[in-house]
Amino acid sequence: MNETQKPRAPGRFAGAWDSDIAYSFRHSPVAVVAAVVSLIIILAAVFAPLIAPYDPFNPASLNLMDGFTPPMEPNAFTGNVYWLGTDNQGRDVFSTILYGARISLFVGFAAVLFAMTLGITLGLIAGYRGGWVDSLLMRVADVQLTFPSILLALLIFGVARGFIPPAYREIMAIWVLIVAIGLSDWVQYARVVRGATMVEKNKEYVQAARVIGAHPVKILLRHILPNVMGPVLVIATIGLALAIIAEATLSFLGVGVPPTQPSLGTLIRIGQQYLFSGEWWILLFPSITLLALALAVNLLGDWLRDALNPRLR
C-alpha cells in the first residue's frame, strides 16, 4: 500500500454495527429472538396476498361446506385440506390470521404514531412555555390518567361513531379506532417529553439559540426534540404492543373493526364462540399469533429501554 494513502474511514454500516446498541443487541439472545419473531409476523402480514393460499375476505371464494374443517384433515364433503383448519364460514384460518395481522399491525402502528405525535407536540409546548399552558395541559393529562385507557378508548370510539353517518361507519371504523386508541395513550409521551424539555431548555445550547434570535419552533424542533427522542422511542416500542392488545380487546368486544375486515381480536371473538363445541383451532391459532406478537414487541421494548439507559452501560 502506498505510504501516503490514508486508511479508509469505517463506513456508516460498519459504524452502526460497532455501536453500543448493536453490541447490546447481538449479545442479548432474548432481544434477537424477539426481533426475529416480530420480523417474521410483520413480513408475513405485509406480504399476506402473496403468502396466503386463499383470500378469506372474498365471498366468492368461500364454500360453507368447508366450515369447521380440522387442521390437516380432509373435509368430509369437499376433501379439501387446510393447514390450520377453517372457521364457521369455511375460511382458511391460516389466511385469516395473515390478513387479520395486517389490520392489527396497521391499527397499532398508526395509533402509536398518532399518540406519539400528539404527545410530543403537547409535551414540547408545555415544557418550553411553562406557566398556565403547562398547568392546563398537565391537569388534563392528570384527569385522563384517572381513567383506564381501554374504557377511555371505548368512550371515544362510541362518541365518534355517533357523529358519523350510518352509511360511512364501516368505512371509517378503522380510522375511528386509531384515533380512539391514540387519544387514550398520548399522556405518557407528553409527560416524558415535558420533563425532558424542562431540563433541556435551561442548557447552554438552547440559551445560545435564544440569544441569536432563533424562533421558538426552530429551537424545539432542531435542538430540543432530537435530545428527548430516546425515552420516546422506548415508550413507542412498548406502546405498540399495548396498542395491538387494545385493538384486539376492542374488536373482541365487538366495537372494533367491521366483520368484513376482521383483525386478530375479531378472529379470537369468533373462535371463543365455538371453543366448547370442539372447534378449538379457530380460537387457538389467532390467540397464539397475538400472544407471540405482543410478547416479542414487549421484549424488544424492554431491551431498548436497558440499551438506552447510560447507567447500565
UniProtKB/TrEMBL annotation:
<protein>
    <submittedName>
        <fullName>ABC transporter permease</fullName>
    </submittedName>
</protein>
<keyword id="KW-1003">Cell membrane</keyword>
<keyword id="KW-0812">Transmembrane</keyword>
<dbReference type="InterPro" id="IPR025966">
    <property type="entry name" value="OppC_N"/>
</dbReference>
<comment type="similarity">
    <text>Belongs to the binding-protein-dependent transport system permease family.</text>
</comment>
<dbReference type="InterPro" id="IPR050366">
    <property type="entry name" value="BP-dependent_transpt_permease"/>
</dbReference>
<dbReference type="InterPro" id="IPR035906">
    <property type="entry name" value="MetI-like_sf"/>
</dbReference>
<feature type="domain" description="ABC transmembrane type-1">
    <location>
        <begin position="101"/>
        <end position="301"/>
    </location>
</feature>
<feature type="transmembrane region" description="Helical">
    <location>
        <begin position="140"/>
        <end position="160"/>
    </location>
</feature>
<feature type="transmembrane region" description="Helical">
    <location>
        <begin position="103"/>
        <end position="128"/>
    </location>
</feature>
<dbReference type="Pfam" id="PF12911">
    <property type="entry name" value="OppC_N"/>
</dbReference>
<keyword id="KW-1133">Transmembrane helix</keyword>
<feature type="transmembrane region" description="Helical">
    <location>
        <begin position="228"/>
        <end position="253"/>
    </location>
</feature>
<feature type="transmembrane region" description="Helical">
    <location>
        <begin position="280"/>
        <end position="304"/>
    </location>
</feature>
<keyword id="KW-0813">Transport</keyword>
<dbReference type="Pfam" id="PF00528">
    <property type="entry name" value="BPD_transp_1"/>
</dbReference>
<keyword id="KW-0472">Membrane</keyword>
<feature type="transmembrane region" description="Helical">
    <location>
        <begin position="172"/>
        <end position="193"/>
    </location>
</feature>
<feature type="transmembrane region" description="Helical">
    <location>
        <begin position="30"/>
        <end position="52"/>
    </location>
</feature>
<dbReference type="InterPro" id="IPR000515">
    <property type="entry name" value="MetI-like"/>
</dbReference>
